[in-house]
Design brief:
Blueprint (H helix, E strand, L loop, with lengths): L3 H38 L10 H35 L11
Length: about 100
């Protein structure tokens, strides 16, 4: 049976994973909404390919998003490493003494 410290660490890890998952879903929804807005603002004409300006705008938006997400991603990676290091390791994973 896990002690209180192990339960707290497990809860923290689950909360971190849940937060990251929600953030990913929110980012995907924002990207979808952005692309739809660009499609509405710069529609294709007569069934032709999308204008090059539309593609350039979407690519610029994705580049901006990549830069913006890089900041919290680095923080999330550092947090994940810190949480993993703080979690108690089961005796079976510690190796021979």
């Amino acid at each position: 049976m896990a002690n209180t410290t192990e339960d707290g660490s497990s809860d923290l890890l689950i909360d971190v994973i849940s937060t990251i998952d929600k953030s990913e879903h929110a980012a995907l929804a924002a990207i979808r909404e952005f692309v739809e807005s660009v499609d509405e603002a710069i529609p294709s004409q007569d069934g032709q390919e999308r204008p090059k300006s539309r593609v350039a705008i979407v690519e610029a938006g994705l580049t901006m998003l990549d830069h913006l997400l890089g900041i919290p991603n680095d923080a999330a990676k550092r947090l994940t490493v810190a949480v993993r290091e703080a979690l108690p390791r089961p005796e079976s994973l510690n190796g021979p003494h």
